[in-house]
Design a protein that fits this description.
This protein is mainly alpha-helical. It is built from one helix and no strands.
């Protein structure tokens, strides 16, 4: 019982870390897209 509990905890920790990575990638991509949009918008005004 203890062995499976430890495995489950390790798996949950790994999943949580992967989830955080995915969220950080998504935020990074959104920031990059926002910067590209701002540059494009200002270049169209000029």
């Amino acid at each position: 019982m203890k062995k499976s509990n430890a495995k489950r905890e390790a798996w949950q920790k790994k999943q949580e870390e992967q989830g955080k990575k995915v969220v950080m990638w998504i935020f990074g991509a959104l920031i990059v897209l926002a910067i590209i949009y701002l540059v494009w918008t200002f270049s169209m005004m000029a």
